[in-house]
Amino acid sequence: MSPKIEAQNKAEKVDELSIYRATPLKTHDLIHTKLEVSFDYGKRYLYGKEWITLKPHFYETDSLKLDAKGMDFKEIAIIDGKKSIPLQYKYDNEELSIALNRKYKSTEKYTIFINYTAKPAELKSKAGESITNSNGLYFINPDGKGDKPTQIWTQGETEASSCWFPTIDKPNQKTTSELAMTVEAKYTTLSNGKLTSQKVNKDGTRTDIWKMEQPNAPYLFMMAVGDFKIYKDSYNGKEVSYYLEPKYAPYAKQIFYKTPDMMNFYSKMLGVEYPWAKYSQIVVKDYFGGAMENTSATVHGEYVQKTERELLDDNQESTIAHELFHQWFGDYVTAESWSNLTMNESFATFGEVLWHGHDAGQDGEDRSRYEKLQNYLRSQKNGDSPILARFHYRNADDMFDNISYSKGSIILYAMKNQMGDEAFFKGLNHYLTTNAYKSGEPHQLRLSMEEVTGKDWLPYFEQWYYNAGSPILDVTYKYANGKVTITVSQSQDSSVQTFTLPLKVDFYVNGTKIRKDILIDKRQQSFSFDLPSKPEFIDLDPDKILVGEVNVDKKTAADYLFQYKNAPSYYNRIEAIKFASKDRSQESQLILLEGLKDPQEDLRVLSIKAIDLNEKQNKDQVLKMLLDIAKNDKKTIARANAIVKLASTGDASYKALMDESIKEQSYNVIAAGLTGLTKYAPAEADKALASLDDDTKKHVTPLMKRFSSQK
């Protein structure tokens, strides 16, 4: 860090957005971290002994600075053979400054011993919007009162591992590790790497030793202690395990069963085998961060933990895929600074999209990608949004947003589309293998893509990674004298860059599809093409790779109906249904009628909610289709919405459907049946609700409120 930047960081009233967030300076390199820890539940303390091995990065030095938050130190010494030489140090409650016994060169390793007490519960948390606590180590119900389980777990991102062990707590550091945890013998432990030994002690405790033989970043260190049941699976000879609370243990396989398939898919796609000794997933209580991709040991919040009945309605497959993809992008190669978080989170979000494509086909992939696009579009205004690789921010937590996650993922997808899959994945392989066990930034990804393709990708990276915003394309079509003319205006805010966009256009003419390429690179321009007759439909960007918006002038319900039937990508289908949901024309009702048969349940649900039951022409057909969905759809959310829709007719013949629905296993279907029954016999509905067991009642009551609020 330069003196100017350091001075800015220390200024009291400096505008934080004016600070350039430099990649952390490497004065030392971490090499190995050995820890022995035990816990005081009453005080919420960790008692630790640490042997930390380092070397100067390049320049010789006689001092060392470590991140260490809120700790007491009993001894700090350097290990010289069998001798332990006490060292002088200064401490400001966040940074430990140690005077070494002499100058060390970059060719010399040395080991520091630290005997310390960590008191994370006494720290003042620096909470952000995404990561809402930064105390690093958490004691859950340490007094053992009530029904809540007693647990200990850690959360290191962004720089909170230094709340429980001294380290250089920066993402561009990597270290191997050995962690010995002494816990009550009744508890199970989990950490990074492999469990290499367990020793039962005379005082009723047990010491578990976990070894991580490959280097990883300090923020990816983890511990968990508690009453967990372990379900063991496997992938390619490696242990794959799932740690859950005992009452959820019977459902472990149902919750996580796709994990080995995901590991196989990602390994083959990237050409890099899953790199760690094992892969564990643990579900902990009161977790506030969603999930965390600690190396070889992902932590999930309890929302992932579901019973067989809950899994009928929902699962967290996307989260499981996201955290697993991090084991390559984030753990194997780590963003070198939080400014470059896109190298972690954009990729993990992209990994979700790819998994859904592999598991559920192109429609599943496109649905996931569409969701990411909508997430991003909600985060921009008139095309204005933050830069993807941001070197100016108030807090590192600010980087964990829809820019780093969603926008970054669809930028990667667009790059894949432009390069072609073979070149793109070969480029990812080059990036991973070149930077293995190190850190990376977008320019290293760019250089890998250039190495593979032989093409200069700097303009793409400059536009999407190092400049802000996204395009808004206003489009008009005109056909005259055998020519179709497309006029495109980039209408994003004038402060936002003008984009260069290589896109395709599909013309539907006389039952055939004609594809053309265009290059949009001005604020306004026109493209003309000879066509044999006026096109029935024009589909700009048929692959839907644009990271932005397209607004077509004078697009009618008939256009959307043609789009749904004849250019039926997921994007085109959902946009047609969204239009029809707000339009009352006959064509729009026909779109919604088609939507009731859509292969994607979310589009069936949109159509169910929007279709007009007062429209007489197709009413009998619509009611028949809704009844079929209510009884037979494979997705409970579609069944539930069809039940509520039929109840809205007030037709007494559907009361039996409500009664039968209440006997189902799915909470969605039960809640829908009860909601519908209130329209026929409120007293019966109240009685039926009261008769449910507490677990069912807990689940269906909020669902009933949601269904009741639907128009």
From TrEMBL:
Reaction equation(s) it catalyzes: Release of an N-terminal amino acid, Xaa-|-Yaa- from a peptide, amide or arylamide. Xaa is preferably Ala, but may be most amino acids including Pro (slow action). When a terminal hydrophobic residue is followed by a prolyl residue, the two may be released as an intact Xaa-Pro dipeptide
Q: Which cofactor does it need?
A: Zn(2+)
The record's Gene3D superfamilies line, in alphabetical order, gives: Neutral Protease Domain 2, tricorn interacting facor f3 domain
CDD domains for the chain: M1_APN_like (cd09603)
Q: What is its EC number?
A: 3.4.11.2
Give coiled-coil spans as residue ranges: none
Main EC class the enzyme belongs to: hydrolase
**For the Aminopeptidase N-like N-terminal domain, which residue ranges apply?**
32-220
Pfam families, from UniProt?
A: Peptidase_M1, Peptidase_M1_N
Q: Which UniProt keywords apply?
A: Aminopeptidase, Hydrolase, Metal-binding, Metalloprotease, Protease, Zinc
Task: Give the Peptidase M1 membrane alanine aminopeptidase domain ranges.
Answer: 259-464
Q: Which family does it belong to?
A: Belongs to the peptidase M1 family.
Q: What is this protein called?
A: Aminopeptidase N
Q: What is the organism of origin for this protein?
A: Flavobacterium ginsengisoli
